[in-house]
Amino acid sequence: MSDQAPSSLGRRGFLGSVAAASVLGVSEPSHATPVGARAPLSKSAAASGPRAPQRAVRFGLNYTPSKNWWYSWTDWDAASINQDLADIASIGMDHIRIMMLWPELQPNSTYIRTGIVDRLHEFLNMADTAGLDVEVTVLNGQVSGFLFVTPWLLNGGTAQMTNFFTDSASITAQQELFTALAAKVGSHPRFLGFDLANEIHWFAMPFGINLATADGDAWAQTMFATAEQAAPGKLHVNGLDHFPWLNDGFFSRPGVSNAGTLTANHTWAGWTGVFGTYGPMSTASLHYSEYFIELIKAFQTDLTRQVWIEETGVSDVWMSSKLIPGWTKLSIQNMVSCSNLWGITWWCSHDPSTRFAGFNPLEYTLGVFTNDHQLKPIGKTIQALVAEYDQNPPQPIQRTSALVLPDSMVPWTPFFVPFMKLVHQGTRPAVVLESMSTNQAYLQARGITTLIHLSQV
After folding, report:
1. What are phi and psi of 454, to 5 degrees?
2. In the predicted model, what is the mean pLDDT of the chain?
3. pTM exceeding 0.70
């Protein structure tokens, strides 16, 4: 098996048959002494909506409007949106993540639609009434499998896309957009911060843009600096999925782990084929998000930096609907076993309306609410866990053992399988880069006393 993840391992790709019998069992999460205090729920005194309890881990949903999906920015229906937000608040969520559509918001490099910017401010007021904080995702050229093409990036009306990661004029236009948004909502008490984009590599690749990691890291640093200058002290992230971790392209693993306020990751066991390869209730499936949290922490230079599971979810296309509540409960319990977890933001709030054609079939079943506002069993599961954690905050595991990752290895099957073998055998490991494995001060700071090399698993 090659150490390199295949370049085609994408959002719609599937992992090849690499099943190992030792990672097929169900492993209940264990709990041990807390590693340390976690960040409390932060609210501005200026917010007027209901207060959520202080939380060790934040819980929220990726909001998908039930009536007009994200076409809502043009086809605005305040009453429907208010009802959706009330639904979300009713199950104990404290925040949401929302999607702007880049071509609607900035149809020309020198023109930003002030009407949509005003609607964003109105939306934040509505979220305040519901008691929800809001992460605003901006440069969205791809959402739920659809491309939203920013017209001024197409050269001369052709299908040739400007490399908006490296083209100086394009970067200037992006910076002006963030500045304009922050001028309107940056001080709003419900504005959490900016997510630069939704998995922006999936927007770039269909147009032939294949980016060196140095260029992607430089773009992210530039945009984070702009976001911080425009909205200082807010939570600014780059919403990415598995791709930068399993491929050497667009963004480096050290860059993703250390740029921005914290590292946001989208953990989809379905899109990488884990459900199909190992089984939906396998150790590999139930601990998939836990794996990525621990992997990210191995690359961080600030040991107090947090990780945000900004998207995760499950569809009945991937597993029997009867298994979904149990998988959801165990997956969340395993995530909260990790130290320095900022929060979990489930995808998504409401099933899209079937009057909209062309979505991947599974997209119509990802909501925790049906399209007509009925709470599904998965929603009841999440609601019960959040209520439980409000009474008894989750305690992270002290991970004294760490699996050593060779610095040059793409951390997929040659590393993922041994990690899951250890979990199945009862060891919940941290991850340490080989280059840091002899740094005693670093290991001590992380509480690691035992190193496990791949040859030992």
Report:
1. -55, -35
2. 90
3. yes
